Amino acid sequence: MCTQGITISTGEARKRYGQPRARELYDAFRAAVDVVEELTEKEGIDCDFTRCGRLGVAYKAEHFERKRAQQRDLAENFGHETVLLSRDELRAELGSDYYHGALLDPLSAALHVGKYVHGLAAAAERAGARIHERNAATAVTREPDGSFLVETWHGTVRAKQVMAATDAYTDRSLPWFRKRLVSVGSFVIVTEPLGEEPAREIIPKARLVVDSKDIGHYIRLTPDQRLAFGGRAHFAPSDPASDRRGGAVLKREMAEVFPQLRHVDIDCVWGGSVGFSYDRVPHAGQADGVYYSMGYCGHGVQLATYMGRAMAEVMDGRPEANPLRGIGFPRIPVPFYNGTAWFLPFAGAYYKAKDRLM
């Protein structure tokens, strides 16, 4: 998913930063989708990019009323036109009675992220970059002259500038950043091919679907007519056993949303990690000489792309190119936190209970 919009509500952004700054951030995050589209066209990246639109579906009736207020706010204060769909109107967009309506953003996009990453790598190499895979950095040390030594599995690199773009995979080589991010497991199942007609009955216009739960789901059709159904199935890191457990949870939850898929086979399940900052917004800048951009809070496909371009300009002497300038990491709210999120199961239990009961 390559979706428009900020990682917090527009109301919260306005409260924190004021309307002009909130609008600036919102415009940057909308432009991020344009940058992805531009790169796929310019570099010839075949990754099934399409502006299919995103349905923000309301899990509860009161969530739909928030969508109504959100539509007005987006139009009046952010120049973003969306379409509000009642529960009855949503039936033309989604083969499910599970939700109470939706807000449709027609310009959000879908793409195959694996193909996109390979295409970016090929484009970078054509531009002269050298990519060293399977060679982790293990320590970053600043020298008295301001340069850096980066120790890796296979040698040491001296660099004038260092950029940390590690997000959810920030490890002990960058301890200052590791303490300021929480790595959350995210899991996806993909069904067997459904066939064109059954697939179109599920999501007739192949929209992206994201629900309004605190522990929500993200849903889409793939180009070969499978349903991809993802979410924070359980609060544990991704590994083969954890992925299987997450897949079982997601299959049960998929059947709640789409009872007609109860007996469909699941062909694939996988997991990974998503990087969250404590204030749920991305952060980018410089800390002890190290440039950084991370904490995308589930919006990394488009924001990491956009911020890669922005931070390249910052490192070339144009600090105004950073749309996140001046937004520092908040104080660490969890005592003795060193990057191992021992508290996530408790947080997950609270938010799942909140989704059910509140």
In sequence order, what are the helices and strands, one letter per element? HHEHEHEHEEEEHEHEEEHEEEHH
Count the helices. How many?
A: 10
Instruction: Name the beta content range.
Output: 15-25%
**Largest sheet composition:** 8 strands, mixed
Mean pLDDT: 92
How does this structure look, described?
By secondary structure, this protein is of the alpha+beta class. Helix content is 35%, strand content 21%. It has 10 helices and 14 strands. The strands form 3 sheets. Strands 2-3-1-9-10-11-8-12 form an 8-stranded mixed sheet. Strand 9 (208-211) and strand 10 (217-221) form a beta hairpin. The two termini are 28 Å apart.
Question: In short, what is this structure?
Answer:
This is Glycine/D-amino acid oxidase-like deaminating enzyme. This protein has helices at 10-17, 19-42, 61-78, 87-90, 113-126, 175-178, 196-202, 240-257, 300-315, 344-357, and strands at 54-57, 83-85, 102-105, 137-142, 148-152, 155-159, 163-164, 181-191, 208-211, 217-221, 227-231, 266-277, 283-287, 290-294. It is α+β, with helices and mostly antiparallel strands.
Write a concise keyword list for the protein shown above.
about 350 residues, alpha+beta, eight-stranded mixed β-sheet, three-stranded antiparallel β-sheet, about 35% helix, FAD/NAD-bd_sf, Glycine/D-amino acid oxidase-like deaminating enzyme, FAD-dep_OxRdtase
